[in-house]
Write a structure and sequence with these properties.
It contains 6 helices and no strands. With 191 residues, the protein is mainly alpha-helical. It has a domain of 106 residues: Topoisomerase I, Chain A, domain 4.
């Protein structure tokens, strides 16, 4: 070997050592049949090759216990009052928003060039309108939290339907408010 070949040897050794250190260590996944493979073996579906010829799954890979049967709760007698309160909160937010957005619309229509005093006043009026949406958005957030809790505890279907109806009603208000803000803000140009 020539000297040039020896010079290339140390980087190759270092590279091989680095690659060897990249090998995974620790527990490896089991090669036992997965639950889906065991389930297929019990049906008329084709049997996976790992289960053919009478091979048995190891004892440690026994089937998981079936999930407990879901129990449906009785109707919540307080839910209608809570939903009415949240819808009323959203309605209050809508009333405040309508007043604020009308003011903002007037300010935007009379706004001057970007950066002018009237433009700043219009921006502030739009910000006040966005802030006026807070009760509606809070009500929507509270309704969403109720929906998550109801889903986790398998709520009564009548309660779930009433909750869904309230969410859809408040979401429609929030969507209209967002669309109106975009419409009013559109003429305002950034400086």
């Amino acid at each position: 070997m020539t000297f040039r070949r020896f010079r290339a040897l140390p980087p190759l050794i270092v590279g091989a050592a680095l690659l060897a250190s990249c090998a995974a260590s620790g527990p490896f996944p089991s090669l036992a049949p997965r639950a889906v493979e065991r389930d297929l073996a019990d049906s008329t579906a084709p049997i996976p090759p790992c289960l053919k010829d009478g091979q048995q799954a190891p004892e440690s890979a026994s089937r998981p216990a079936p999930p407990p049967a879901a129990t449906v709760e009785p109707a919540d007698p307080t839910l209608p009052a809570r939903l009415d309160a949240l819808k009323a909160k959203a309605g209050e937010g809508e009333s405040a928003f309508v007043k604020a957005i009308d003011t903002a619309s007037a300010a935007v229509s009379s706004a001057g060039a970007a950066g002018s005093e009237s433009w700043v006043a219009a921006q502030q009026a739009v910000s006040r309108a966005e802030t006026a949406r807070a009760p509606t958005l809070d009500a929507l957030s509270d309704l969403s939290a109720l929906a998550v809790a109801a889903a986790q505890r398998q709520a009564n279907p009548a309660d779930a339907q009433a909750l869904q109806g309230a969410i859809e009603a408040v979401q429609a208000i929030a969507d209209r408010q967002a669309a109106r803000i975009r419409e009013v803000k559109a003429p305002l140009k950034s400086p």
